[in-house]
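Assemble and predict.
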Amino acid sequence: TQLLEQSPQFLSIQEGENLTVYCNSSSVFSSLQWYRQEPGEGPVLLVTVVTGGEVKKLKRLTFQFGDARKDSSLHITAAQPGDTGLYLCAGGGGNTGKLIFGQGTTLQVKP
Amino acid sequence: ETGVTQSPTHLIKTRGQQVTLRCSSQSGHNTVSWYQQALGQGPQFIFQYYREEENGRGNFPPRFSGLQFPNYSSELNVNALELDDSALYLCASSSTAGAAETQYFGPGTRLLVL
């Protein structure tokens, strides 16, 4: 059974601080996607990584896919209150195209 | 380009009833996946439809069933509702059913079973 574990589960920081969220598995994934979700809404895609070792940057967000395609990280530089939300990693694999989600990291950035 | 839409946004049912949730996929997408998200959890895969046929199913009982129509919109049906079925139901569409395909989510339907 493929599982994704995210850490930490909860993070409360001050505006301007840096943070890293980790997404780990013992399984290999064809792709890894990061989403951000607001309360009562659907997840919004931030990035998809497909190549081992790949690094993608989206303004203050940096995403990395592990060399073995089993893990990923999301680093936020100089966090802002607008970054508050639930961050989800999701792995794609197998023939069905189903996504396996981590349990999520709830981030609160205080002004 | 129209994104993924879902209806209704909220629904209240009682235990034992049946419910139908609807999803319109993003323009150009032929694959629809359904997920259940309990409060405080990540979404769990229910099943996927590709070109009107089921293309994979998660660990959900047969009372969860679905359909995909020729225009690639989809329905999720749940029979004999249980209290634990209370959750946010998410629909996601993608351009194909491949494992590396990016899925785009709708806003979800919040179901409350009393």
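Residues 14 and 61 of chain B are 19 Å apart (CA to CA).
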